[in-house]
Amino acid sequence: MSVCDRIFTRLGASDRIMAGESTFFVELSEASSILRHASRHSLVLIDELGRGTSTFDGTAIACSVVNDLANRIKCRTLFSTHYHTLVDDFEKHENVGLGHMSCMIENDEETLTKETLVFLYKFVEGSCPKSHGFNAARLANIPESIVELAQTKASAFERWVTLKRILLTLKKVTDNSQQQDILQFLSQLKLN
Questions:
Q1: Which uninterrupted H or E stretch holds 160?
Q2: 3-state helix, strand, coil in the chain (%, to 5)
Q3: Do 88 and 4 sit in the same domain of this protein?
Q4: Same domain, yes or no: 148 and 128
Q5: I want to staple 117 with a disulfide (CB 3.0 to 4.6 A). Which of 40, 99, 125, 135 is the partner?
Q6: pLDDT for 102-159, tens place per residue?
């Protein structure tokens, strides 16, 4: 008797250009096949589902697939993702365990603001505490001026998302004194 009845994978990135199928379509087709054919006794390996579309669509699709695997199929699954909000949705789920590959961050001796990423190649429990995209860009020898511009853009985008979240919360507040407190807090933020 085997440990699992079938092994399913959704790995890599490739298109089927002659069939008119984009990389994203191939991803979805493979995920669809997994959802149709996997059983409770299957092993499923999925890497970065949803990367071929917008962040919001990709996160939503990945979240829905993980939800179905964890709640309906309940099979053993290894699902890798860089969508931190997806991880947040499943932190306390009884059928989901979180883990990440550990690393160590060292500050550059010359400029303390630059970080060097050292991979430890050890799987540890819990979600990854932060994204290391800029460190990875440096490891890939992306010019520093481009990495710095990307960091500036990312910070601006994070501030914009935070502001939007605060404004949506403010819309829900009906108490006038709470609105005034929130507006005063907002006026103290540096948003540029």
A1: helix 144-172
A2: 45, 20, 35
A3: yes
A4: no
A5: 135
A6: 988 887 777 666 777 888 999 999 888 888 888 889 889 999 999 999 999 998 988 8
- 157 contact partners, CB below 8 Å, separation of at least 6: none
* 137 φ, ψ (degrees, to nearest 5): -60, -40
Q: Is 94 left (phi over 0), alpha (psi -120 to 50) or beta?
A: alpha
Task: Tell me what pLDDT residue 180 has.
Answer: 77
- Do 63 and 125 fall into the same domain? no
Residue 113, burial from CB neighbour count under 10 angstroms (0-12, 13-18, 19+): exposed
Strands of the sheet containing 7-10, edge to edge, are 7-10, 43-47, 76-80
CA R_g for the chain: 21
**172 vs 157: CA distance, rounded Å:** 23
Domain carrying residue 169:
143-192
* Total residue count of the chain as it appears in this document: 192
Bridge partner list, 7 = 43
Task: Return the higher-pLDDT residue of 6 and 171.
Answer: 6
pLDDT for position 1: 59
